[in-house]
Amino acid sequence: MIRFLLIFCCLIAMRAQAFDVSGDVEGATDSSFFQRYSQSKIVDYKRLDTADYLLALGAPKTVNGVMQLEYSERFSGDLTRITYRAPDDYPSQEMFTHFSAQLNQLPHKVLFECHGRKCGSSNEWANRIFNIRNLYGPERYQHYLAAQIDSSEGPVFVALYSIKRGNKRVYTQVDLLAPEAGSFRDVAVNPDTMLTQLKQLGVVELSTLKFDEQDKLTANTEAQLESVAAALQKNSRLKLYVVGHLQINEILVTQQQRSLARAQSVVDVLVQRGIEAERLSAQGVGPLAPIKSSGSVDRIGFIVQ
Predict the structure, then answer these.
(1) DSSP assignment of 194-263, as one string?
(2) Cα separations (Å) of 103 from 77, 110, 150, 215?
(3) Domain boundary pick from 119, 149, 179
(4) What residues does 243 pair with on adjacent strands?
């Protein structure tokens, strides 16, 4: 019995020694957007000025030994890279949910999200996308999200990846890129992610579309509708209400008319991209159905019919 107790105590001591929560790597700090997961520590930290960064917006595939991303964007800007490690054998999904829940408290839009084997090869994420070998593990334990945060200092792109390795070690990578002014451009949501949002929530909102004085969609923001068109093409039975929300210093009737004109402009662009007109219904509600509890409302909502 004494021998058994000694072995048991030694195992506990070895486990405690395997994960020491007492210190981050030198110079490391949490970002202003996220608080760390309980008992986790920063094992790698980098800040890079004018970095060239590939933002993955789809699951990687390997064709003839070459990694391919159907959807991605490349930006230059200030990059912060934080690698967290949680105590061994913690659920990677729990760590991922911890960060994504904080993201939901910020003004943002999800550009792409995947879980488990739907994320593709973990080897590609670890060694080609992030270039951090500790992020390689069984594909069923991986989770990824890319989003755009609309901060007070400008847009920030975030890439969030969690994994539990075969050795039970759990890591989460948080990359934050503040793009240079000349590098930033509007990014379309991955069509599969948009379909998932429509299925789960019944609505998707776009707040970054721009309209001219005649309430026509500007040419430089039409590209944002590519993901909507692609989603409608993937699901040929999907029908949407295209709803204009607008709050300006005009009488109610004018706001409703202008919000309807904007919604119709979006419908026209989607039809030009090959979507049947009968699958889209333009509606204008002006300020009568505010999406926010306060502040101005100026956006387009896509609601499943």
Answers:
(1) HHHHHHHHSEEEE----B-TTSPBPGGGGGGGHHHHHHHHHSTT--EEEEEEE--SS-HHHHHHHHHHHH
(2) 21, 9, 11, 32
(3) 179
(4) 283, 301
Closest CA to 159 of 69, 62, 275: 69
pLDDT of residue 295: 42
DSSP 101-139: HHHTTSSEEEEEEEEGGGG--HHHIIIIIS--GGG---G
27-70: pLDDT as tens digits: 999 999 999 999 999 999 999 998 999 999 999 988 887 888 98
CATH number at residue 195: 3.30.1330.60
Phi, psi for residue 34 in degrees, rounded to 5: -130, 140
Domain CATH code at residue 32 = 3.40.1000
**What tokens were used for 101?**
């829940």
pLDDT of 123 above 90:
yes
Is beta strand 240-246 parallel, antiparallel or unpaired with respect to 280-286? parallel
Q: Do residues 231 and 198 make contact, with C-beta atoms less than 8 angstroms apart?
A: yes
Question: Which helix (H) or strand (E) segment is 45 a member of?
Answer: strand 41-56
DSSP, collapsed to helix, strand or coil, labels residue 72 as strand
| Cα 296 to Cα 143: distance, rounded to the nearest angstrom | 34
Say how far apart CA 244 and CA 294 lie, in whole Å. 17
Task: Count the domains in the chain.
Answer: 2
| Residues ≥6 apart with Cβ < 8 Å to 117 | 139, 140
Domain of 244, in residue numbers: 191-304
For residue 8, what pLDDT band results from cuts at 50, 70 and 90? very low
Q: What's the whole-model pTM score?
A: 0.80
Gyration radius of the chain's alpha carbons:
23
End-to-end CA distance of the chain: 69
